[in-house]
């Protein structure tokens, strides 16, 4: 595929760690180099063009998550900041509760637990069973103000069915928050169809962008109900009129963008998403699924391997986690690392997370290494 020319990873490295921090494609590297050259040569002379790139990035993100308008998109530093904007923007009452799962990454757990001094309870719900969505729905009651869930669980790779969760929340006046950091760039995401109120995702994983730039989606219908805790020049209407003393808070997603934007990150993520949109998210999802299928089909019958990720097709994501029945996870991880397989230890096993461009030959090499591990 011609798009593989976009990648120049070290030939000695098998990079299957996109669920952590992904490498940049060549066009992203070139965009950041060009931005640096522009800044070093002309300073901020071309700032008006930088703002256009910022607006284009918001349109790309709008397309990727099927938001109604780029006015619903904010660019923040990371997932944790976006979740904090939500957590401290809601007018909580003592006795309110929040429903999350017991498999969440700390970002989608710590922020809610920090609300305990306000009298807010966090309910940790098991995702075991054939329909984990029912477990979450059953945990909601008349005091539930918000349900927050990762679209894909970072350790196991369990893919959630967001639509029934969104429908239940909307019908029962519960805010629905989705951490989509393990989905966007790898699988289709639809905030409209799934009735999502908030969606957050950093750009440095499956979106193939730099760290320090993240999506924050807030549905227009609830935007003005989220209390602001940060204020600055960038979050007002007519933000380039610095002499305006009668400022008003912006009536779009910029209201959550307190100060100067991360223009370096914006240019990088803009380039990365241009590649993702060019290939098409459905094509990317299909290619990732094929690589996970290859891993499952070749490893599921090995007695020395225990697959920890879901096997059902509708529950699979780009994350494949497994352990050894013969040795410790540490030894298995060290063995793969010694063979230049760059992966991670998560959820009691070794986690592989290949992207669409990962060569099938490399997947077969990983399978060969695992088959020989004792």
Question: If you had to describe this structure to a student in words, what would you say it looks like?
Answer:
This protein has helices spanning 26-42, 47-65, 79-87, 107-113, 132-139, 162-171, 220-223, 263-279, 281-299, 329-338, 360-372, and strands at residues 14-15, 73-76, 97-101, 121-125, 144-150, 175-179, 198-202, 214-218, 305-307, 320-324, 341-342, 344-346, 349-352. The protein has 374 residues and is of the alpha/beta class. The chain folds into 2 domains: 2-23 and 281-372, Aspartate Aminotransferase, domain 1, CATH 3.90.1150.10; 28-278, Type I PLP-dependent aspartate aminotransferase-like (Major domain) (Aspartate Aminotransferase, domain 2). A hairpin with a 2-residue loop joins strand 12 (344-346) and strand 13. Helix 1 runs antiparallel to helix 8 (263-279), helix 3 runs parallel beside helix 4 (107-113) and helix 5 (132-139) runs parallel beside helix 6 (162-171). The radius of gyration is 21 Å and the shape is globular. The protein starts with 13 loop residues before the first strand and ends with a helix.
């Amino acid at each position: 595929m011609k798009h593989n020319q976009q990648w120049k990873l070290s030939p000695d490295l098998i990079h299957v760690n996109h669920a952590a921090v992904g490498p940049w494609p060549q066009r992203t590297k070139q965009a950041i180099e060009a931005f640096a050259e522009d800044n070093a040569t002309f300073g901020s002379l071309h700032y008006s063009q930088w703002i256009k790139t910022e607006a284009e990035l918001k349109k790309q993100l709008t397309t990727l998550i099927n938001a109604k308008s780029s006015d619903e998109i904010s660019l923040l530093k990371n997932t944790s900041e976006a979740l904090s904007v939500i957590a401290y923007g809601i007018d909580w009452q003592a006795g309110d509760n929040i429903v999350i799962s017991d498999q969440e990454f700390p970002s989608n757990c710590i922020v809610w637990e920090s609300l305990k001094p306000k009298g807010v309870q966090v309910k940790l719900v098991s995702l075991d069973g054939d329909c984990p969505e029912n477990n979450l729905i059953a945990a909601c009651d008349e005091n539930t103000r918000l349900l927050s869930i990762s679209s894909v669980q970072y350790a196991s790779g369990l893919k959630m069915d967001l639509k029934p969760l969104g429908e239940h929340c909307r019908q029962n006046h519960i805010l629905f928050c989705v951490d989509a950091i393990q989905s966007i760039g790898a699988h289709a995401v639809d905030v409209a169809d799934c009735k999502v109120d908030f969606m957050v995702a950093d750009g440095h994983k499956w979106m193939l962008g730099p760290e320090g730039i993240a999506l924050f989606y807030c549905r227009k219908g609830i935007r003005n109900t989220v209390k602001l805790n940060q204020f600055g020049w960038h979050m007002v209407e007519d933000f380039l009129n610095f002499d305006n003393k009668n400022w008003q808070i912006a009536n779009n997603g910029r209201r959550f963008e307190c100060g100067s934007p991360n223009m370096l990150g914006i240019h990088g993520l803009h380039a990365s998403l241009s590649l993702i949109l060019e290939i098409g998210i459905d094509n990317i999802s299909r290619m990732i699924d094929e690589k996970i299928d290859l891993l499952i089909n070749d490893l599921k019958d090995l007695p020395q391997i225990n697959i920890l990720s879901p096997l059902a097709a509708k529950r699979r994501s780009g994350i494949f986690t497994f352990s050894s029945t013969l040795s410790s996870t540490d030894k298995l991880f060290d063995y793969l690392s010694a063979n230049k397989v760059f992966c991670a230890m998560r959820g009691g096993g070794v986690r592989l997370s290949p992207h669409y461009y990962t060569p099938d030959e490399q997947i077969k090499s990983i399978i060969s290494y695992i088959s020989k591990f004792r």
